[in-house]
Amino acid sequence: MSDFFSLLAEEFPQVRSGLWVTLEATVLGALLALVLAFALGLMAGSRLLLARGVSRVVVEFFRGTSLYVQLFWLYYAMPPLTGYELTPLVCGVVAFGLNFGAYGAEVVRGAVNSVPRGQYEAAIALNLSPARRLWKVILPQAWVQMIPSFTNLLIQLLKATPLLWLISAADLMTVVQTLRDRTGETLTAYLTLLAAYFVLAYALTLLMNLLERTAKRRLGLEPGAKSLFKSRSATTATTGGAA
Amino acid sequence: MNGFDWEAAGDVLPLVLQGFKVTLLATVLGTLVAAVLGLAVAMAGRAPSRFVTVPVRVVMEFVRSTPLLVQLVGAAALFNTVEPLVIGIAVLGVHYAAYTSEVYRAGIDGVPKGQWEACRALSLPPRRAWQAVILPQAVRNVLPALGNYAISMFKETPFLAVIMVQEMVFEARKYGAEHFAYTEAFTLAGLVFLVASYPTSLLMRKLEKRLGH
């Protein structure tokens, strides 16, 4: 067992760069997904049939075709078809962004729909412009409801990043795999890897809980300090149809 | 090698469909494992002793928060004499049990308190109370959510290709590498996923509406 950890310490710069790739893919993928989720989710509530239709088709397409096929398609199938080649990390970010953006769109749609009708009516009665109505009245309330589901999606995105190993990006999994090959300590290597992902996931959960608390405070709700340490609930992951 | 080669697409389709059978088998058996194990975990989570409930919750939270791919590759490396498909089904089942157990927990919590009290009033032994009163009501509420997890498991089966289970993506990759036709192979694999999963999710949504969720 000590072999593995001494090699881990020796190769620390490599491990750190692997960790960095994993974090980069998670954060950039999540940002792209967030932008897409809002764009597609708000389009789904549009009055225009065309906007609703486009959103529906895009969401069903990216939810329906499996992340793994999307990632492989971007990496293996797109270059011969179009002549453009993306680096593995960019492939990952684009695939994660599109796939989780599609799931996130359902979260946004559901949360916006769940804001009481009266709030819309009050905003209209106050003669707010549509943009201000959305920005000042609807979104702050919907946002609080979106965060728990977004937390789940974020953790799922983090859990998808080891796929980068398959398209040869040097992420955390790739680095630890090479360390395992060099020491032959299978059990230690994978337990370390699992522990690392668990710590990352828990750190992200804490950050998202903090975000939820801030969002609730803006609405005048005062959640206790304990709410920061609550674990995420698995059941909310099922909202928005097929997970 | 530019453009979409329809001939190659025709060649790869039977292979992809052959892999699809394995994909489907893994999904069905994996769902079965997750459904049974999830229920066991949910019931263990309600045990009277904290020495049972706390470790169960911690382990499940750990399984839920760590990547399936690492679990899969790790299990395959540790038990390298076991058939890959068996490992794949077991790991998928355990991973999803961490999710289904939460669904069961909510389903069991959703059974009105009066039902428990009635069981006690009738002095039913705990075993009979679960079997005859609580579970039939809980499981009915839980079915749509289980279906959704089955669909999401279906879309995660390509992971199994990594440990050499010859499912759909494995076949697509093999053909792609041999004939340099990744475009056609992966496009078809994606379409098969879409064709299979979209109607299923529509069906699940209908079932959910009918059950009043």
From TrEMBL, chain A:
Claim: Endoplasmic reticulum is one of the keywords in the record: no
Keywords: Amino-acid transport, Cell membrane, Membrane, Transmembrane, Transmembrane helix, Transport
One of the Pfam families matching this protein, by short name: BPD_transp_1
PANTHER family noted in UniProt: L-CYSTINE TRANSPORT SYSTEM PERMEASE PROTEIN TCYL, MEMBRANE COMPONENT OF AMINO ACID ABC TRANSPORTER
Organism: Kitasatospora albolonga
InterPro entries according to UniProt: AA_ABC_transptr_permease_3TM, ArtM/GltK/GlnP/TcyL/YhdX-like, Ectoine_EhuC, MetI-like, MetI-like_sf
Name by which UniProt lists this protein: Ectoine/hydroxyectoine ABC transporter permease subunit EhuC
GO cellular component, one term: plasma membrane
Compartments where located: Cell membrane
Automatic annotation (TrEMBL), chain B:
Residue stretches spanning the membrane: 22-47, 68-94, 185-204
Keywords associated with the record: Amino-acid transport, Cell membrane, Membrane, Transmembrane, Transmembrane helix, Transport
Main location: membrane
Subcellular location field: Cell membrane
Pfam families: BPD_transp_1
Gene Ontology process terms (BP): amino acid transport
GO cellular component: plasma membrane
All residue ranges annotated as the ABC transmembrane type-1 domain in the record: 20-204
Lipid bilayer topology: Multi-pass membrane protein
The keyword Cell cycle is assigned to this record: no
CDD domains named among the record's database cross-references: TM_PBP2 (cd06261)
Cross-referenced InterPro entries: AA_ABC_transptr_permease_3TM, ArtM/GltK/GlnP/TcyL/YhdX-like, Ectoine_EhuD, MetI-like, MetI-like_sf
SUPFAM superfamilies assigned to the protein according to its UniProt record, in alphabetical order: MetI-like
Family under the similarity heading: Belongs to the binding-protein-dependent transport system permease family.
Name of this chain's protein: Ectoine/hydroxyectoine ABC transporter permease subunit EhuD
